[in-house]
Amino acid sequence: MEELTNLEKQRVIDEKTKQIISLLGVKKSFRLLNQLASAIKLYKYVFQKNDSNFTKNMTEASSEDKNDIYLNDLYLGLTHNPGLPSTNTIAYKHLLMHSIAESEIVLLKSRESGAFHLSNIVKLGKEYYYFDPTLERSIYDDDMWEENRGTLCCAALGKNDDYFKLYEPVGLLPEDMNSNLKPLPENIAEESMSKNLVNEIASLIPDYSRTIYKNQDDDYGDR
Predict the structure, then answer these.
(1) Cys-Cys crosslink for 82: which of 19, 46, 55, 61, Cβ 3.0 to 4.6 Å?
(2) Which fold has domain 6-214?
(3) With 0-12 CB in 10 A as exposed, 13-18 as middle and 19+ as buried, what is 108?
(4) CA-to-CA distance for 26 and 155, rounded, in angstroms?
């Protein structure tokens, strides 16, 4: 099959976005606790709904334009979810922005290797918190999820969390991907949200890789 055009991909993205938000039942709320619960629900959906088989057969976007590459990563993240840092963070930001909260994608640099990594910041109440669906996915794959009784390790993090012993934030991805990075917002929370609260909420949310949600999605586009 021929690769879908950007217009065709956008139509699929719009349909898929409505399907996922409806499936998960996330809604806007002015209450911080409700915002957190919805952010965790979308977060678990993104990092658990991973298709590793598709990752092995993934082809690169045919265009060199960074905006086209971003659109393609969003399309892949919502339809096939290969679980890459780009597809995870772009899909998570998109679902948040179209449902319950403001979100940005952060470029970070590994303090050990110097390699770049992507994460999300999500505005809950008046402050932003870090969520890293890719690192969370890695922990989930390594069976630490079971050992820790399903504890979320990379959700609702503040600037003083141990996470930042691993990564140094560099800046935000711009709206036009061919432009320079944007500065980080000033209202990023200093402290993480209570781990007990985060994981009490997370324990009430289904495991999207092991329930009826596993087969709920329609298959869109080429593989």
Answers:
(1) 55
(2) C8orf32 fold (3.10.620)
(3) buried
(4) 17
SS3 content of the chain, % helix, strand, coil (to 5): 45, 15, 45
Dist. CA 148–CA 146, nearest whole Å:
5
Give the Cα separation of 156 and 136 in Å (integer).
12
Taking only the tens place, the pLDDT of each residue in 65-104 is 999 999 999 999 999 889 899 999 999 999 999 999 999 9
Q: How far apart are CA 88 and CA 141, in angstroms?
A: 15
Helix axes 85-97, 66-79, angle to 10 degrees: 80
Please give the C-alpha separations between residue 125 and each of 34, 141, 170, 188, 215, in angstroms, as whole numbers: 10, 31, 24, 11, 34
36 vs 31: CA distance, rounded Å = 9
Tokens in use for 90? 């772009």
State pTM to two decimals: 0.91
What secondary structure letter does DSSP report for 179?
Answer: S
Q: How far apart are CA 35 and CA 19, in angstroms?
A: 20
The DSSP 8-state label assigned to residue 150 in this structure reads S
